[in-house]
Queue: 2 jobs
Job 1
Amino acid sequence: MTELLAQSIGATRVFGHIAAVSDVDLQVAPGEVVGLLGANGAGKTTLIRMLLGLLPPSAGEVRLFGQLPSLATRRRLGYVPQGLGLYDDLTPRENMSFAAAAFGGAGGERGAPGRHRPRPAGLAKRGVPGGQRPRFPGLAKRRAPGGRLPGLAPLPPGLESMSKITVGRLPLGVQRRIAFAQALAHRPDLLVLDEPTSGVDPLAGARLWETIGDAAAAGAGVLVTTHHMDEAQECERLVVMAEGRVVAEGDVAAIVGSARVTVVETPDWSGAFEAIERAGSAAALVGRTLRVPAASPEEVKRMVGAVPARVYEAAATLEERFLQLTLPAAGAGAGAGGGAGQAH
Amino acid sequence: MTRPGGAPDRVPAGAPDGVPAGLPGGVPDGVSPTWGVRGLTVWFGAHAALRDVTLEVPAGQVTGVVGGDGAGKTTLLRILAGAAAPDAGEVRRPPAEQTGYLAASSGTYPDLSVDENLAFAAAGYGMPGKLAAARASQLLERTGLAAARQRLAGKLSGGMRQKLGVVRAMLHRPRLLVLDEPTTGVDPVSRADLWWLIARAAAEGAAVVLTTTYIDEAERAASVLVLEDGDALAQGKPEEIIASVPGTIKISPERLRGDAARRAWRRAGTWRVWVPPGYDGGADGTAGGEGAADCVTPDLQDAVIVAALARELWAGEPS
């Protein structure tokens, strides 16, 4: 049986009278990229904070590497927050050295522990002794084949020329690569990434996903939180949260399932848009077509009346399905038209 | 409209408006002027923020500008909004009072309430108070902000603040609505509300231009300009950009090695590799094969990646 890297079992967290997270089961296994989706307030951040050991659950349990979260388990984690967590006034090299020191050394250097940098005092006693920490068989091949300075991971390829520029002055795409390199430098077993490719162009984004995929192929588990379906589609498995609970789980096809929307093609899209609004439903504009998530083609035909239009049913996109799962049944007034209340 | 220099390599921005096949008619408001820029160049010192960029922003539709951080999106929108001037090129835009602009750094006053922000904007636009209040109510109600009207803008969530910013920018029914990253940092529910506002403004006849860093969002626009390092990497309707992909795209379950690795990228757990037209480097097994089983129909994301790869690989080569 594969050991789970991160696991919550019926995890619940209550703030006052409000359950931010209710009875959530989540697992991340080695080698898997799991996407966690949810609107603001759905409980994603609270769940992650529990998994990282920053917040104790009110009920249920969380396990990191099979143990209760602690400083020792935290050292096996790599975390890239959306703000990247880099020091703007340090160079890429200085940032990475600093992180390496904080994590008690980069990976692959355990033969020469602490040779060139002091171990932070708080970690010295509680850290797992060098070379003793449990590892998964698949992880061994991630160690660099020697020839690397102990404790100092290399800068990502192509960034050497920027090694003397402070991070705050570098383009965002470069900053993201540095943040990734920094998070991966200590060869974490579990990577937690928040919108890992936000703000970069598609090619740079694809290259970042390659790095994430490589870490997973080498045995790390990856947990990605995102608001963007482009990113969600790069994950092997998705967990969708709404109002503190898991409301859907599986790959993209499983989550979209048989959800349908009604498409309206018309030369007078604005007329059709207004007509659908007046009828109390809601249409989303995509190019020059309208997509109506909460009404059948027959209903939409009645709504648009005299407006010449081709009206047909089509499979919902992941984003449309997400909104159906997230918006309460009464929310027909919201955004791209909730109202398609039935979640399953 | 032709590009300066007559470069034929891109889809012209002024392609006819798309009407579904087999349906009569055209854009209802066919006489509306088209705003936009032509041959726009902007220098920041020795660095060109924009190089010879042409973009039409027609009335009654959404035009998307997509690119990564530093691509030139904000510079272009500042010029369209009249907040900056180009070093070279033409700008066609309506007078300031007929323009609505949401800057990237939120166009709201944190120490004023939602209502005060909108009343202040309405006064600035010279709108009658009653008319402004009625329109504000309708837009706030529809986007879930009605309960927050007395709250200070500085106390709103990111999504609510962005919605307020867009409502403020479109309150006076501008003919040109310029929105710089209206959905950045917001969740999908707020994004849906923001897109409702955007569609609403376009349905009222405004020419809407917006920026985003996400391709799937840009794909919701009727036409798209992809910027990279100040250059137009691709432009046109999404389907035109997709149709103009040179060569073929193949799918591979495994990571590609050698020369092909430079033309490959990861999508949803598999690799895609671009085979340029006429490419015969059979050694890496990626040559030819139009119509072969492992060819994929590209989407806009693939098309933009190929354009970026072509730019990267063909840089410096005579075209």
Note: Chain B has nine helices and twelve strands.
Job 2
Amino acid sequence: MALLDLQGVTKDYPLGSTIVNALRGLDLSIERGEIVAIMGPSGSGKSTLMHILGALDAPTDGEARLEGHDLRELSENELVTLRGRKVGFVFQTFNLIQSLTAQQNVELPMIFLGVKRRDRLERARYLLEKVGLEDRVAHRPNELSGGERQRVAIARALANDPEIILADEPTGNLDSETGATILDLLKRLSVDQGKTMILITHDPDAAAIAHRVVRLRDGRVVQEVRNA
Amino acid sequence: MLREFLRLAAQNVLHRKLRSFLAVLGVCIGIAAVVGLISIGLSLQAMMKGEVSKVFGVDTFVVMDQDMMNQQRHGAMKEFALNMDTLQGVEGVKIVAAVRQRTAFVQGGVNAEGKAQQGFMPVMGLSPELLTEFSAFTGDLALEPGGRNIQVGDTEVAVLGANVAERLVVGLGDSFLVAGEGKNEIRATVIGILAASEESDADQGFASGMSSSSGDTVYIPYATMGRLWPEGNDFLVTAVKILPGYEVDDVADRAEEALKAEGSRVTAITSGDITDVIDEMLAYINIFLGGLAAISLIVGGVGVMNTMFTSVLERTKDIGVMKAVGAKNRHILAVFLIESGLIGLFGGLIGTVFGLGLSAVVCWALNTFANMPGGVSFPFVASPGLIVVTLLGAFAIGAMSGLWPARRGSRMPVVDALRYE
């Protein structure tokens, strides 16, 4: 069974007085341990696809299964718990909570899952060490560089030891050198820890670390390429 | 998890210092007004109770005409009589002292032109025990040198108000005529003259309440009063002191029962009855003052609501992130509610301190600058109950003001919240 399995997925949402058909019968299957890059021009449905792959949203029609769970059959709270355990997000704009320190940001997903304080602190420190920020634990996001912020975000994504890392333009706000180190880190973590990674990206360098590149246009998969 | 939410909320409050401060200030002003005004009300209450206990103590009650409260003092007073011996015989009663008042025709000496001085004056029949055992009722009846007060066993004697002595042209040892009902009359010997008082009437205790001015009253023994007028509707008050080991309310009930059984239309009033009336009256005053202050508290609450709406809007993306990493709606709701509750609580803490300070300053100013008669003082009251209720209330007002914004924030779909710029 594929880790993620999308069959004939459509997603419509209202925008003003019109209905946008963001996904129009999309099929996609992702296996455990795969690194998949999803590319496509603006408006091709990348973000909408990311929402469904990350269990942030359920499809309008079709079937979307995460580890066999049909997203359309889950309640909102069940969706929250599922993505809290199974998916770690890395965003283009980092999306750290400004009032919290690096360590507290990493602790956040564990708080909502009810992890004990001692285990939480230990794991947050371990993860920040993994991303090379052991001396930045008490800093707030505004005291960190862009690359450091994205490392904190990656550590946060790994907090609950998810199956899937979903990275939305992880290098979009970084210079190319920093971007390269972040990609390197993502790839290393994915391989070391056996994570499935999905990269939503415009960046060819990012796509280059993937096992497979999926191209979207107008809400459908138009091309799938396996990297050597 | 509550501890983590508390920490999250506290960090959010501290992160936006200026805005949080302004919201706290709004609540603070409201709470300060509530605490200050209610504390001043409590001081007033404590002052009045203190005054009552000065007069009554725990071992004294009074017996009065049961219709007295509904009557004009003079005029329509109904027939009212009580038997002092019955009262004295009630179990637990130590001493009974009474006061009656009439207006009598009096005739004294002659003036420089040889003209006899006479006129109608208030005559008060006092039990001698009233002066010895119930001095708080009579106030300080200071006498001119050489005189003495009415004592047990005195009969045809009188103590005169300073003005009376002058008008009747009589001095110590002189006698004068007091005419009662019908042909009843006595010649009373002056045994004391009240020193002319420089204090206002209000300072002269109970005695001043019996006539326009104690300087115009003729005081005679209670027993002698009975020879001039039969007991009737002229009892002002009967004071009763109880024996140690008895409860004043029990004795008062027994006394009232015994007297009513004989047909006296009386009511026995203890200090508890009076403080009950004061409590009831001041409860209304406190509700009124608290209500006024509550208006400013509502304004403070609206301030918190405004702050929370801004905060929710500003942190829409944070809400999206928290939901993406596993926060349920109720988690988001809890964080924002605690946050607004904390603003309320901080405002409450600071406001309580300011309110108590305000009350302390008012009490101090009244005690220091206002010339209170008779050593009346306003005690500063910091009620622990008020403080606890206020702090809980402040947290609740904060949380309630945050409820609407927090619900809106918590119900925001995660995808929309993440997309928010």
Note: Residues 33-47+82-226 of chain A form a domain with the Rossmann fold fold (CATH 3.40.50.300).
